[in-house]
Amino acid sequence: MTRKPLIAGNWKMHGSLADSRKLVEALRGGVTAGARATMLLCPPYVYLSAVHEWVRGSPIVLGAQDIADKPATGAYTGEVSGQMLSDVGCSYVIVGHSERRALYGETDAVVATKLKAAQAAGLTPIACVGETLEQREAGETRSVISGQVAAIVDAAGVQALAKAVIAYEPVWAIGTGRTATPEQAQEVHAFIRGLVAARDATIAAGLSILYGGSVKGANARSLFAMADVDGGLVGGASLVAAEFLDIFRAAA
Ligand code: 13P
Question: Which is the catalytic residue, given 97, 99, 106, 189?
Fold first, then answer.
């Protein structure tokens, strides 16, 4: 299996330009070429160009937190296209984060459209899936996840997952300090891989599935030790250089 671990920092709407610079400088010092894992930073749109300059010459890669659901430029005030993200140095983009789904009304259909728009621009989408606490307690975790994965596969084709990453982010674990246990994460990750394998076993075997939700230096090792956990999508802890480097080292 050649799934290189990916450690992605989703800054969300945090930090200033000056904070971002300090953070990137501290991270650069801790990431050496040839590391076993890839470090990905997803700052807010307006800092992408600056961060791209600051990581130049390092192995750190850049991604965006969202993308327009339109494949081409046009009269879409406030939106940012995949081509524009590519222009400013992005190679990845997060689609369907639970905050986008819950706060901005993104449906499974919109998420699938964004995934296709990302790939059309040559970006690797990181498609987020995950259940709420209510859904987990109602025993609906598998049906929710399979619905979210099926929406992508049905719209984009299983082939789309040959050049995509999936992030399992249980909504109840995001920003709450309540991490899924390694066993809980592994169970859902294996379930996701199984869903994809039912359509294409080779694509499933190569698919990176990240875990997100209160990942910290202290729990990263046990999560990444799980067979189907291929890295992390990290929010709060990615804003603290020492903590994020600790997580990175757990995978690298
Ligand atoms: P936290 O790591 O802050 O829980 O956030 C996870 C997340 O939503 C990353 O996309």
Answer: 97
d(Cα 168, Cα 46) in Å, to the nearest integer?
A: 26
Structure confidence by residue, pLDDT tens digits, 41-69: 999 999 999 999 999 999 999 999 999 99
Mean pLDDT for all residues in the chain: 97
Contact 170 CB / ligand 1 (< 6 Å): no
Top mutation candidate among 98, 215, 239 for ligand 1, by most atoms within 8 Å of CB: 215
SS3 246: helix
Q: Give SS3 for 93.
A: strand
Q: How far is CA 100 from CA 1, 34, 150, in A?
A: 32, 34, 19
Backbone angles phi, psi at 112, to 5 degrees: -65, -40
pLDDT greater than 50 at residue 198: yes
State the DSSP code for 76: -
The predicted pLDDT at position 71 comes to: 82
Quickly list H helices, the chain.
17-28, 48-55, 82-87, 98-103, 108-120, 133-137, 141-156, 182-197, 201-206, 217-224, 241-251
| Beta-strand runs (E) in 123-219 | 124-129, 165-168, 208-212
Instruction: Give the span between the Cα atoms of 76 and 241, in whole angstroms.
Output: 36
- Is residue 97 among the annotated active site residues? yes
For residue range 206-229, list pLDDT tens digits in order: 999 999 999 999 999 999 999 999
> Is a pLDDT exceeding 60 seen at residue 1?
no
Q: Is the CB of 60 under 6 A from ligand 1?
A: no
Largest CA distance in the chain: 49
Active site residue 169: yes
